[in-house]
Amino acid sequence: MISFLITFQRMMRAILRGLKEPEFQVLLTLTIFTLISGTIFYSTVENLRVLDALYFSVTTLSTVGYGDFSPQTDFGKVFTIVYIFAGVGIIIGFATKIFELASTHQMELKKRKEQKKSDLE
């Protein structure tokens, strides 16, 4: 549990740092737009509750796909095919950027520690 909280804290710090970078802002906007568009589509076309539609959008784009929901209409199936191909790339780009920000920060902290150590010697 402690390692989860530390990892979550690092991720949140990376996201907060990322809000200052234009590339991160674009990826965040695309991620939110993709999830909202999927949620709207599935709630209207597939008649899912909004929470279920958001859940389906997230599980689909994260490639988890529990199988508890699936599109019932042909239009929903075609949309899901396109949604997966477009959305998975966006989500991977967003997750990669968060990881990049977190690891860069960790490397900077390590360099500072080493610099302090060498300054004291």
From TrEMBL:
The chain crosses the membrane at residues 26-45, 78-102. GO terms for biological process: monoatomic ion transmembrane transport. Residues 30-101 form the Potassium channel domain. It is found in: Membrane. InterPro entries: 2pore_dom_K_chnl (IPR003280), K_chnl_dom (IPR013099). Keywords: Ion channel, Ion transport, Membrane, Transmembrane, Transmembrane helix, Transport. SUPFAM superfamilies: Voltage-gated potassium channels (SSF81324). Pfam families: Ion_trans_2. It is a multi-pass membrane protein. PANTHER family: IP11374P, POTASSIUM CHANNEL, SUBFAMILY K. This is Potassium channel family protein. It comes from Jeotgalibacillus haloalkalitolerans.
